Protein: Pantothenate synthetase
Organism: Phaeovulum vinaykumarii
Amino acid sequence: MIVRQVGPLRQKVRAWKRAGQSVGVVPTMGALHAGHLSLVDAARAACDRVIVTIFVNPRQFNSPEDLANYPRTETRDAALLAPFEVDAIFVPDPDQVYPAGFATNVSVSGVSEGLCGAHRPGHFDGVATVVSKLFGMTGAERAYFGEKDFQQLQVVRRLVADLDLDVEIIGCPTVREADGLALSSRNARLDTAARAAAPALYRALQDASEALVAGAPVAPTLAAARAAILAGGYAEVEYLELRAEDGLAPLEQADRPARLLAAAWIGGVRLIDNIRL
Ligand code: PAF
């Protein structure tokens, strides 16, 4: 069921499509958790055939240490996927994705600027490039992404619209621990104290969101949320911004569908989260 080469994957997909079956893909970098599994569940419910891809994409990492430290847990991932009976786990060999001579970069402007884009140069080019490849390799007509990476979801939507890619993008809600912490592969790197304090980020987003919905002014509300995140044990707030939900334009007033998005550092780990107003 694990497929490592594009050729055999394409053969499978062609046979499924000839039989009139729909194909969904869940792109991941492995180290699967319940957030990923909720995407697989959604794909399983809507598609005849489901492909989960696992590829730790070097092009979207900013630092060699981050890439080297990224957990690689293929055997565990396959075991977690077993109950979902996915039709293929595509774990491409690196040369399948970036063969010698690879010379293309997919770069989405606008929605990729600011927020994570400002702090992780090249990150969204790496994401857009690999996602384009994964769509091309899998031929899926539906693709599932978590809202936890909300800016990534917007980048992928823009990419698909701009390049007329024949794939429907499905955004799925963030899955949280009981205390509110958004699930992330990075949570495993939090020590006990940092893990206990980490929900302060979501709490601050919730409080700020409630205040904004009740009509509080944006700038002081965001300043109070930043202070609450730092008081809650975070070392640094990289950004905390109110953006339009569609297109991510910065907002000075919460006067249309909006998201609060934040990135902050705790215990040497960078966490992101966002909330719809
Ligand atoms: O969200 C992720 O895990 C990655 O950015 C993705 C979409 C699989 C591309 O490498």
